[in-house]
Amino acid sequence: MTQLTTRRAILDDIPRLTELLQEQAAIIRQLDPRYGGHAHDAPAAALQAAIVSDTHHVFVAKRANGPLLGYIIGQTEPAAAVQQLVIDAHFGSRGVGTALLGALTGAFRTDGIMTYTVAVPRNHAVQQAFWRAKGAIVIATDAVNRTETMQIYIKDGQ
């Protein structure tokens, strides 16, 4: 298997990122039919805004000569948070999420950020397990959005 690489997202990545986001939304709807879709009515516009923003970091992961396998969006203001971690469903548990989180964590560290939050669907066992394995702890539960807000502390070597 070829090596996984990460890089900053570019505007040309948006069609593939939108496709990945739609795939993830469909999976979440299967887990919870009450899920009405993504928070953004226009995901391409939201992705573009994040890619060009000074307050966001957007990274993508891929293998050589292959399609993008996932992306991560982190915001630095008003508070540091992972806004999205989206991975091709066919490549889960293959290090894509860990590689993306490593790239974002490095950017956060460069910005002087040592803690951040992420909102995780309460009924998505795979996402819950991923974040807990990375050291996340639940700090709040949102019954309306059916999410748990988790906080992560960046450690040396993380």
Secondary structure blueprint with pairings:
Elements: E1 4-8, H1 14-31, H2 43-52, E2 56-63, E3 68-75, E4 81-87, H3 96-110, E5 115-121, H4 125-133, E6 137-142, E7 147-153
Helix pairs in contact: 1-2
Description:
- The protein has a seven-stranded mixed β-sheet with strand order 1-2-3-4-5-7-6, sandwiched between helices.
- It is built from four helices and seven strands; from the N terminus they run βααβββαβαββ.
- It is an alpha+beta fold and 158 residues long.
- The protein is globular, with a radius of gyration of 15 Å.
- It is 33% helix and 30% strand.
Arithmetic mean of pLDDT: 85
Biggest β-sheet: strands ordered side by side in the sheet:
1-2-3-4-5-7-6
Strand content: 25-35%
Q: Which structural class matches the secondary elements? A: alpha+beta
Helix content: 25-40%
Termini separation: 24 Å
H/E topology pattern: EHHEEEHEHEE
